[in-house]
Amino acid sequence: MSIAKKGTRMIVVDGDSYRWVVAPNDEPGLAIVVVHGEADGQRMVTWVEHGVVIAPGLVAAAIRQALLHHGWTPRERGKQLTLRCLDVDPDAANLSVVAWPPG
Q1: What pLDDT is stored for residue 1 in this prediction?
Q2: Where are the beta strands (DSSP E) in 37-99?
Q3: SS3 of 93, please?
Q4: Backbone dihedral region of 4: left (phi > 0), alpha (psi from -120 to 50 degrees) or beta?
Q5: pTM > 0.70
């Protein structure tokens, strides 16, 4: 699933490029939407609380968590992976996310 290129930012994480954007004013918070920069594969959305400062370090941490612990396959087509950060003030060095909605 792709996202519109206009308004997105690029980030390189562990040698792979990704495009990301923040979708504001949604519930249950702010959505960090990420896709692979070169392949039209699975999209990842990580929800964070309103008021969280979303900087590239936090986006990189969310990407790593999705890849390492949640089976995200950004180069392959698939159902959107949706995660939620339960920390009110997440730290990029210690980001913890869970599958959302819990099931």
Answers
A1: 59
A2: 44-48, 81-85, 97-99
A3: helix
A4: beta
A5: yes
